[in-house]
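hey can u check if this looks right to u? its 274 residues, i copy pasted from the old doc so theres a chance i mangled smth
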Amino acid sequence: MIIFADWLQRTDYPVASIATMEHQVLKKWDEQIKSAGLHRDTVRISRLSPERIREKLVSHSALIRVLLSEIEAMQELLYITHFFVIADPSGVILELGGKDDILQNLRLINIGPGTLCTIKHSGYSAIAMAMETGMTAIVRGNEHTLQLFRDGNCICVPIRVGGVVQAYVNLMFAVEIDPTFAIPLLRYIATQAEKRLQADIGGGGREDVYDRFAAYQLTGRQKEVAYKWLQGQTCVQIAQSLYLSVHTVRTVLKTIYEKTAVNSKVAFIRKFTG
């Protein structure tokens, strides 16, 4: 089991909620919701065209891989029924994570890649509030505009690189569960993802990472595989992009682990993004 003792004990993160919002801000949001024609019984949320969805997924593919791998590392800490949402800076859903039956139910109400989670498209939600405030946000049960979401609590955290929001990660679970327990978990996901994304979007990018690999005497091929592994790519994806067999990729990764003195993907990622 992965233990994040320091993070799990922290309670000092600033959080936005309906209770912390000024009356004039809520009034402005309510006007947007009303002008958009949203009401509590709306059962289908607006979604982009298939073409636009494909464009979004392609342009954010590396980002999605990084976030999914960080979310996966957290799954063992969550023993409750839940699902994750990854949205782009404009509030468009890029990916969902959860059990198949939950995802199937979400698809029935038009929630999936391309669904719009802004105030005017879905009303009060943690994603919309995080977008509006720039903060980690919590929306509880009946605070949601849409009846669809009133059985759950949700918490959303922005993902930033160089001070610029790159995405939002949202976690939703049963309304009976106090959402504050998830604040350090979501902040941990954000911090780890931001470190990894910084290697590509900010700093010296690939060159800096390759310099760190050089300290462990990695060969050119090993650096290529290690870099893609650090980005969150799978063995199959690496094999396809480098024209290698999956077996070869796994063999190279085993050698990389030996040279860098790690024994897991999580340990490898933390070694080169910490």
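The longest strand covers residues 164-174.
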